């Protein structure tokens, strides 16, 4: 997939990457952006959108966004986060 994806593409990519991982494993939001943007330098521009979609999925109870194993709001400052399946 090339170019910048919209919400459905970002959501699909998040869950596709998670499905490829062992249960309980997480992904970095940058992995999602890199999977969607062909140019190596272009993925950073997609990061705000990836974070926004991830937080929407977390708010809907479909995804966990964590920092140090603790659920967080990815849109707030505070460092690197991980995206994981929500098993609850």
TrEMBL record:
Coiled coil: none annotated. It comes from the Bacteria. InterPro entries: DUF3253, WH-like_DNA-bd_sf, WH_DNA-bd_sf. This is DUF3253 domain-containing protein. It comes from Aquincola tertiaricarbonis.
């Amino acid at each position: 997939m090339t170019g910048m994806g919209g919400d459905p593409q970002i959501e699909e990519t998040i869950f596709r990457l998670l499905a490829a991982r062992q249960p309980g494993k997480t992904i970095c939001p940058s992995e999602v952006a890199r999977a969607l943007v062909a140019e190596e330098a272009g993925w950073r521009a997609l990061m705000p959108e990836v974070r926004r979609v991830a937080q929407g999925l977390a708010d809907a109870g479909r995804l966990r966004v964590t920092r140090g194993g603790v659920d967080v709001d990815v849109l707030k400052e505070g460092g690197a986060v991980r995206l994981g399946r929500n098993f609850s």
